[in-house]
Design a protein that fits this description.
Number of domains: 2
Structural class: alpha/beta
CATH architecture of the largest domain: 3-Layer(aba) Sandwich
Number of helices: 13
Number of strands: 15
Strand content: 15-25%
CATH topology of the largest domain: Rossmann fold
Largest sheet: 5 strands, mixed
CATH class of the largest domain: Alpha Beta
Distance between the termini: 37 Å
Order of helices and strands: EHEHEHHEHHEHEHEHEEEHEHHEEHEE
């Protein structure tokens, strides 16, 4: 663009241990190109911040504070679950975006999120054609579910996978200690609505050197109660105990989730929660084994203290690449992680058109799941292991990690109109 424009950055959906590393990549890279990019404004609570004109001036933050984002979990500017409808269905939202972007001279839009935010970013990228205002929209990939297409893996996933692999290993050691007179089965529920990538990571805890009795329940495999209980019983008889890692998206043959609550979230997805107790009680009723169950929930995606170095590096690289792509004139694209080799692990930054990313979910390949449906293959292990390797500990003080809290100084509003969000 001939005239220097400001940039808008926002975080979307469930946050991760490394989404702020992507924010750091965006902001630090933009600051290195002050001749081409003005200020970087962040949306307070995602795209909602743009609609309500609640912008954050990141130029008010010191270089040290922005650098600290690289090792700070969660979303530094707030996130949201809000999906823009089509231009035809709700033109007012898009007109409002244009109004806010014009008022604040914004020409670059960086949206950091998963599949739904890729869809939002893709729609915003069409604004220049539909409403006549030039906006370069670049999607910055993020999702713990690892279900975005084209990219080898998604920033956020590697750290969740590492947390689940470690937690599964440690919990399995615990139950092994107690199985003679107490708990024989531990059930751990993990995230993953339709894709079983996170659940698969639990199986990494069992290795050739140290075999552990771990069963995995994937969303990709229809739940067969009789087959599952027989498998649990067989493992308990052989080892004296077992651990079950169940994805929240595990479902019956009719498609109903084991954990379905009958409610929906802001994106229209069934709200899940409770697969672990369902499975644990099933085991107790049928087999009589004592059990414990746990739900990793926010802990798995907030655990920056045990983040994967590969994940942190890739998250930063995606934010950096997004700005570089924009400066080269690209629009409606997403930087990707392209695997070059697994042994040794090498990767590079690639690029994908948003038209092929939006609303597409990447499930686990069939050859990543064992034939019995309860474990991972060597091919899957070879894929997963590089993503959890390497440590990138945050600085500690008095036994606790030192995370940054930004000032998040508000940008003065310029518009007289107030946008009311439809509930």
């Amino acid at each position: 663009m001939a005239k220097k424009k400001n940039a808008f950055y926002a975080q979307s959906g469930g946050v991760t241990a490394v989404i702020n590393a992507s924010a750091c990549g965006v902001i630090e890279t933009a600051r290195k190109h002050k001749d081409k990019i003005g200020k970087v404004y962040a949306g307070r609570n995602g795209i909602i911040g743009a609609l309500t004109e609640e912008l954050i001036d990141t130029s008010k933050e010191s270089a040290k504070a922005i650098a600290a984002l690289r090792h700070t979990p969660s979303g530094a500017f707030g996130s949201c679950r809000f999906k823009l409808k089509s231009l035809e269905a709700n033109k007012a939202e898009y007109e409002r975006l244009i109004e806010v972007f014009k008022a604040h001279d914004i020409g670059y839009f960086f949206y950091n999120g998963g599949g739904d935010s890729a869809d939002t970013c893709y729609k915003v990228s069409q604004l220049s054609e539909s409403l006549g205002y030039p906006v370069q929209a670049i999607h910055v990939p993020k999702t713990v579910d690892n279900d975005l297409p084209i990219t080898d893996n998604c920033p956020g996933f590697g750290s969740v996978a590492k947390y689940i692999a470690v937690s599964t290993m440690e919990a399995t050691y615990d139950v092994r200690s107690m199985c003679a007179t107490s708990t024989k089965v531990f059930v751990l529920e993990v995230m993953g609505r339709h894709a079983g990538w996170i659940a698969a990571a639990g199986a990494l805890a069992s290795t050739k050197d140290q075999e552990l009795p771990i069963l995995v329940l994937f969303p990709e495999v229809e739940f067969d109660q009789e087959k599952f209980l027989a498998k649990v019983d067989g493992m308990v008889k052989k080892f004296g105990y077992c651990t079950v890692v169940v994805s929240e998206g595990c479902h019956w043959p009719d498609g109903k989730f084991l954990a379905e609550q009958g409610t929906r979230d802001a994106f229209g997805h069934a709200q899940l929660g409770g697969a672990a107790p369902v499975v644990a009680n099933m085991i107790k009723d049928a087999l009589g084994h004592k059990f414990h169950w746990g739900v990793a929930d926010y802990l798995q995606r907030a655990a920056r203290h045990i983040a994967s170095k590969s994940d942190v590096d890739q998250a930063y690289a995606m934010g950096k690449a997004a700005v570089e792509f924009a400066l080269k004139g690209h629009n409606s694209v997403m930087p990707t992680v392209d695997r070059v080799s697994s042994k040794p692990y090498k990767w590079k930054v690639g690029m994908a058109p948003l038209s092929k990313v939006a609303n597409v979910e990447k499930m686990m390949p069939k050859n990543f799941i064992t034939k019995d449906g309860f474990g991972i293959t060597e091919k899957c292990r070879e894929y997963l292991l590089p993503l959890i390797k390497g440590e990138d500990y945050p600085p500690y003080k008095n036994g606790l990690p030192q995370y940054v809290q930004l000032k998040n100084t508000a940008v003065p509003k310029k518009l007289k109109t107030v946008f009311e969000l439809k509930k």
